[in-house]
Amino acid sequence: MKSLKLLLSGTTLVFLGLVTTASQTIYEDARPIEHAFDQMAAVGIGDKAPDIAMRDPEGNIRKLSDLKGQVVLIDFWASWCRPCRAENPNVVRTYTAYKDVAFKNGKGFTVFSVSLDQNKAAWLKGIQQDGLVWDNHVSDLQGWRNAAAGLYGVNSIPATYLIDGDGVVIKRNLRGQALENTLAKLKK
User: Fold this and answer.
1) Can you give the pTM of this predicted structure?
2) Could you list the residue range(s) of the whole structural domain that residue 61 is in?
């Protein structure tokens, strides 16, 4: 009986050690979140938008920098995000209205959609269901660990950055009519 108690005590200690080590690993993985606020503050209005290079649904690399010369809405979203899905009709309407417009600092308007999905099928279904007709859809399928979201300090979605033809951030978190009103003011 005494040896059974010792065995159970030893097993319990090993289990607690594993749980503690695992939780420390999870904590260490989560620590960069502290840094996200610094990054978010670093990507502000007037700053050059950091480049994003990520795979599209077909596996091709798409770069934000390839859109230089256009006014671009960087749109962080996910198929599972209800507020994102509710906002998508506004983005589609605005894209359709402004895609061929000449702006003071850019020719045409496009959207660079960065998905925080982890499931490729759900991501593709969201694009199709919401009629997101622009070409620039990217994701690394890492959810909240998405590299671009980390670079921009995104900690909630939807999150948007409007950049001009030179790649400079001119507005953040525009939604609904505010996006359309801003683009109207930027027209030539």
Assistant:
1) 0.78
2) 45-186
